[in-house]
Design brief:
By secondary structure, this protein is of the alpha/beta class. It is 31% helix and 17% strand. The protein is built from ten helices and twelve strands. The chain has helices at 5-13, 35-45, 72-81, 98-101, 115-123, 144-151, 190-197, 234-246, 273-289, 307-316; strands at 18-20, 27-31, 54-56, 86-91, 106-110, 128-129, 170-174, 180-184, 228-231, 251-256, 265-269, 294-298. It has an eight-stranded mixed beta sheet with strand order 1-2-6-3-5-4-7-8, sandwiched between helices. A four-stranded parallel beta sheet has the order 9-12-10-11, sandwiched between helices. The chain is globular, with a radius of gyration of 20 Å. The relative contact order is 0.14. Bound molecules: threonylcarbamoyladenylate and magnesium ion. Residues 22, 24-25, 27, 51-54, 87, 89, 101, 104, 106-108, 110, 112, 130-132, 168-169, 171, 183, 214-217 line the site of threonylcarbamoyladenylate (TXA). Threonylcarbamoyladenylate binds next to β4 and β5.
Length: 322
Amino acid sequence: MRVNLTEAIKLLQEGEVVAIPTETVYGLAADATNDAALQKIFAIKQRPADHPLIVHLHHINQVQDWVADFPATAVKLAQAFWPGALTLVLPAKAHVSRVVRGGESTVALRIPNHDLTLTLLKLGQLSVAAPSANLFTQLSPTTAAHVEAGLGQQIAVLDGGACQVGIESTIVSVNADGQWLLLRPGMISEQAIAAVIGQPSLEMVNARSAVPKVPGQHLLHYSPRTPLSLFQDKAALHRSYLSQMSVHKTCAALLIGEGLTPDCAVIKLPAIPAMAAEQLYNALHTLDDMKVDELLVELPPDLPEWAAVRDRLSRAGYHPPI
Ligand code: TXA
Ligand code: MG
């Protein structure tokens, strides 16, 4: 069910759930101060309760309502990248709902860079918790139609067009002493963050003992329903294609840029990281809908600028040990 801005605000204020656009992916939003509303997110997504949610704000001044500490390092990052695809995990104020925190002592905050959603948050005087608007472990949505295909037509969706970044935000946790750690790669790279802070991440300096737990980062994530195999290059992918053909299996392929192309349904992502990220989930949704026996996916090069796309593809292609 598509709703307009006024309807979306009213529903959220009444404790209902609304799928909202952001620049990364669509989020399944609920009032972050209303536990009953937040429980609906977990129920709809079939998400385990110990997976914390990201709280979406519209102004940096609101951060102090949520955190016990806003270290200078985190302030620098917020000033450099907000509104934008960066989530900061910070020590939570005691009153912050345990449902949002998933039982952690920290809370995740982000100001999304999407005008419609910023207007919604401002006009409605709302702070909303919003995980990606898909079922647990499935592909994230980058259009209103993806949300409806995954969660059903009855879900209220505020249509803000296709997401421009296309994959989930970079998540960084910052300790009270200002040390930081990358929890999830995104299109704002670890190197760009280190450059703003002027100090490498804890992991970069290899301080393993200080690494906190990362809830909700399951290996099996962002997955299409069709079995998916990953290949380091087009030649390896093509060999697998030929062997699939020889046993009369159907397949479809996702390639990075031009080159050796199998004679099956193929989507080529541009060999430019930002463009590939923008198109990634739509390509995977499209390939998944073809209902072939196997998706053959080329991994982009193992370079920093491709880290986030490689991360999502690796999770989509992860096979749990038998
Ligand atoms: O781009 C995004 O971040 C999108 C849009 C909607 O904003 N949201 C998103 O939410 O990707 P979700 O729930 O799919 O992923 C949120 C992840 C969790 O899986 C968890 O790893 C991390 O954020 N997270 C949230 N709160 C945390 C906390 N207090 N400590 C550590 N990790 C946390
Ligand atoms: Mg998600």
